Amino acid sequence: GAVRLDEVLRQLLENLFKIFIQADRGFIALLEPGSEKLVTKAVRHRREEAGGRIRMSRTIVNSAMAKKEAILSADASADSQFGMSESIVDFQIHSVMCAPLVSSGGDVLGVIQVDTTDARRRFSRDDLDVLASVACQAAVAVENAQLHEVAVRQELLQRELELAHRVQRGLLPASPPQVAKYEFFHFYEPAHQLGGDYFDYLPLSGNRLASALADVCGKGVAAALLVARLSAEVRYCLASFPQPVDAVQRLNEVFCDSRWEGKFVTMVLAVIDVASDDVCIVNAGHMAPLLRRASGAVEEVGPSRGGFPLGIEPENSYQQFSIKLAPGESLVMYTDGVI
Fold it and tell me: Judging by beta carbons within 10 Å of its beta carbon (0-12, 13-18, 19+), is residue 204 exposed, middle or buried?
């Protein structure tokens, strides 16, 4: 992990100071993933009194990262490649080596730099070759650590998604209801771990049973959160309003709230009166249910009577209409995953 990488880089810098006995200061800095911000990961000073945070010349560092090659200056204060606009003199740098850490894919991950304040003890081309070799090894360590970090994050995300998937399945019926004269069937399979489809069976007063089916816009976590809210609101609205159309009207008002801006839900609600076999249907922008007659003929139920989806227009009014189910007939509601 990150702690181990920091320790590896500190040890690497320690070893460099054993190799380069003229080095007074050194540091390893890494780019934050996805940004141009350099973060110092390891710092080394030859003398204790010079300790503290390192001050780096961005001209030197930027030059090494832009060229993707190690650079050497035997006399930094007089080197034209850095110019005197940069405060080389302020840092008391006389001789400097800076090597980029380059990934296997050619991306710059950061830099290693060592310098000396003693004008008589300069770095050589051979020294630069050694530093460049060490930078290659450091780049491998950094890349492996970053890949490991990504893998750990992905594993954690996968576990969270699996948990969210179980929670979402818990919001949906585990089994169809047992009602005299009727049989209920359902099938649910999300395209991803978290889906935007919702269905439920809800017993109502007066020997009635509501079957609600909805499709929330979008996929993933945002859609799953909306499904959870929808599940709670459907139960509340159906318990609060005797007429299905009034319950859907209230649902629409809930989802027109500014907090859900840009989100909408298509939904179809069917309320069965078990005694009379009347089915009251309200459609909010969803695909029309299919009625299969006992003869085998199939027809869409009220395709022109659906209102806007929930969450689009707060003043939208919905309509309810009834059909009668005869023995041997079935009503099918579905989402666009089927078609």
Answer: middle
pLDDT of residue 85: 43
Pairwise pLDDT comparison (171 vs 83), residue with the higher score: 171
Closest CA to 226 of 197, 199, 269, 267: 197
138 near 101, Cβ under 8 Å? yes
Q: Encode pLDDT of 10-42 as tens digits.
A: 889 999 999 998 898 899 999 987 778 888 888
Residues in contact with 219: Cβ distance below 8 Å, sequence separation at least 6, in sequence order: 191, 192, 194, 195, 196
Q: Whole-prediction pTM value?
A: 0.59
What is the C-alpha R_g of the chain? 34
Instruction: Quote the pLDDT of residue 194.
Output: 67
The residue among 178, 266, 278 whose CA lies nearest residue 230 is: 266
Contact 20, 28 (CB under 8 A): no
Type of residue at 303 = P
Burial of 64 by CB count in 10 Å (0-12 exposed, 13-18 middle, 19+ buried)?
buried
Strands 38-45, 108-116: parallel, antiparallel or unpaired by DSSP? Answer: unpaired
Q: What is the pLDDT of residue 202?
A: 93
Q: CA 176, CA 183: separation in Å to the nearest integer?
A: 8
pLDDT of residue 258 exceeding 90: no
What CA–CA distance (Å, rounded) separates 172 from 228?
A: 10
Contacts of 98 by beta carbon, 8 Å cutoff, 6+ apart: 60, 61, 63, 64, 70, 71, 111, 112, 113
CB 135 within 8 A of CB 13: no
